[in-house]
Amino acid sequence: MARRWTNTLSHEDVTPKALFLNRRQLIAGLGAGTAMALMPRDVRAQDALEPNTFEEISSYCNYYEFGTGKSDPKEHAHMLTTQPWSVTIDGMVERPGDYSFEDIMSEMTVEERIYRFRCVEAWSMVVPWNGFELADLLNLAGVAPEGKYVAFETVLRPDEMPGTRSRVLDWPYVEGLRMDEAMHPLTIMATGIYDQTIPNQNGAPMRLVVPWKYGFKSIKSVVRITVTDEQPPTSWNKAGPREYGFYSNVNPNVDHPRWSQATERRIGGGLFSRRQPTLMFNGYEEEVASLYEGMDLREFY
Ligand code: MTE
Predict the structure, then answer these.
(1) pTM of the full predicted structure?
(2) Which residue, judged by its Cα, is nearest atom 13 of ligand 1?
């Protein structure tokens, strides 16, 4: 694997053209008129947006281990020690073991990916993540052929995580992906935002980002990754199976039982803060729809 650092690369170097979400970059490459004309209308409506500010991204968070309020993580997450850090990779892998954060980072290619982020509560942001492909990490451990799913676990340290005194969720926070979802090039482990170390409240030192799924799939501060042949449990599915399925793909046509998923409210953004239509697979339909061909997405929500 190549060892390079994101700062030396421009966005064009590291992000496939189809993934561009930032109108500025398109305009820079094509000239404003051409760029707008080439964009389909529904994409124009949503993607003609600047990324959210670092302040917005790091102030409005969901990280229940630090409390259920949006500002609780920012207030309390400084208590979490993120150094040293290691991730146990086990289950159906060829090289199981504890991988230190430093060793992982020395093997990974860290890039910037500007992704739309859609929370199941119907708010959204645009986030410039720095991270590496989860596939590269899984390949480091070597997935065995019988591995069909990937399970993830967040660190659990009640002394550093005051929110875990409440039974709002069953701790530790756990998540899961099917192997093809985990290996998809859009799926990353984020380690930074705006080229800065990822703030604790956003899931330091590494958190999952799966941009076509609702935000709760983005498990934070990961300490264990287990390759298995069975669909793993997920925290929100355990808490409310009727409301939160295993797949959790962003889908404007399948409502959450208590509210519509057809539109979203952009956090921040003044003029742009009015509700916008939510796009199928959060706008990544072209890249990921084939993963779900033949599946009834109402049943597998
Ligand atoms: N991971 C852990 N460990 N604990 C959590 O409470 N919340 C999830 C997800 N990952 C959560 C978590 C939810 S509901 C969302 S919407 C996203 O993190 C929010 O990520 P952000 O705070 O970086 O925007």
Answers:
(1) 0.86
(2) 216
